[in-house]
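hey all, quick one before standup. I had two proteins in the batch that finished overnight and I want to keep them in one place so we stop losing track of which output belongs to which input. First protein below, input sequence then structure tokens straight from the run.
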Amino acid sequence: MIWQALADGILTGAVISLGAIGVSFTLQIMRFANFSHAELLTWGAYITMVFVAFTGPGSPTSGLSFGWQLMAVLLLAALLTGLTAWGLDRILFRRLRHRGAQHMTLVFASFGAALVLRHLIVLIWGHDSRFYTRELQMTLEVFPGVRVLPDQVFILIVALVVLVALHLFLRFSRTGIAMRATAENPALAQCCGMEVDKVIRATWIIGGALAAAAGVFTGLTPQVNPDVGHQLLLPLFAAAILGGIGSLAGAVVGGLLVGIAENALLLVVSPGYKQAMSFMLLLVVLLVRPQGIFGERREGDR
């Protein structure tokens, strides 16, 4: 049971990590908690659902419940969700920033944006749950007593590939270096000639694209419903803060820890209390190490 919970936690944590990266970089670069980010997961999942309605998920291959068509439309949905996130910034957050809005004003605006995005989904697609595919799968026994679905293994591999690709992008590309510099000190980065507006655009598009991937992977294993993003809101922020704001490695580690902790909790309590573990981890981190595991201690931290 313990090893099964650990395996389930790692699989869940990989998906949380994808969504937490966008939360982490928005907090570091934009300097506010964007609660509408979780709803971008739902938008990505439903945009993919629209494309799947035309193309189909594809013929199941290698034990998976879907074919290459689903992954192809996921790339397109990720791009459109990224552009949606950037459009949201252009319409709302950018205007507030130019008017000198304070941190809390942006936070409350993100709450409003989240409600609008969520209810638009309900208005367009309704409350009913939907499926990308209804193909049944045989479980794989990866270790004695530990069984997983082929879809879950595929999702973990794709998540790891995406995270490595993002790490290389941030490490070696000009845009990635500019994003890291802006995250450290936006004013200094601008004085050094970096185009902060382009960095902000890249932050929103990349964060939205990763949110779409997280939403699709979340909906692929069980089902897609309007609460996909809302249910992951607290785990995303817990993972971002636990790992350290602005840290890619921190978002990954934080997501894995949150996923493992949530699934381990199921060994002793009912599933209804699952998300309580995310809140408990968040409180512990804020009390013991506010800067997170990979975050740097700043003046005023105790």
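OK second protein, same deal, sequence then tokens:
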Amino acid sequence: MGVFQRLANIFRAKTNKLLDRAEDPRDTLDLSYEKQLENLQKVRRSVAEVATAKKRIELQAAQLQTQGAKLQDQARQALTQDREDLAREALSRRAAVAAELAELENQHGQIAAQQEKLTETLQRLQGQVETFRTRKETMKATYTAAEAQSRIGEAAAGISASMGDAGMALQRAQDKIADMQARAGAIDELLASGALTDLTTNTDDIQAQLDKVASGSQVDQELAQLKAELGTAPAAQLGAGAGGTETAGAATEARPEHPEVNP
């Protein structure tokens, strides 16, 4: 095989593959159905032509029959007028008409048989074309459904393939969020410890430490006050009650029976 032949075969194979890829089976089926309708229409025209020819023969046969009957009457009239020669001529022409009529009847029979055969063929072809039309529509619907299913599958496959990229994007976003939160927390700690100065406020780091100590002292004072209110106050009340009784008794003993009345 020569180089040019191989190139031609490769080109033909590539062309056929491109044509197969570009071909839509639904369009091909519709085109085939249209061609079948065209052929069916040709058969119908043939049947109509045969029927027309048969009708023409029937009309010619009717004319010959009329002509033969007329010649028969002319021969009878010629005999009544003692014109045997005219009667013979009329009968001779009638015989020719009869022969022609017989030939027409033979042709009529052949054409009638041909018409019947074409009519049967037409009916059979009509059934086949109708069956093909039904199968064509069914196959087109099946192909459309398969095409839709294929597109859905391709879309689902694309979504599945992109889910990995989406997951990686989510992970990167989460890592960035965690990093930013960690940086924000570290900056807050540095600001609280005084290692960094918060430029948004007028308080320096020394004042921040003093405010922190003052806040702690205030908390200690409030805590001591709460302890005093909850623990020390009841004990003092109990001690005051016992001491008051003893004091009252001592005062009673020290009081004289007859106190002196100051003038």
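Flagging for whoever picks this up: Residues 233-263 have pLDDT under 50 and may be disordered. The two ends are 163 Å apart (CA to CA).
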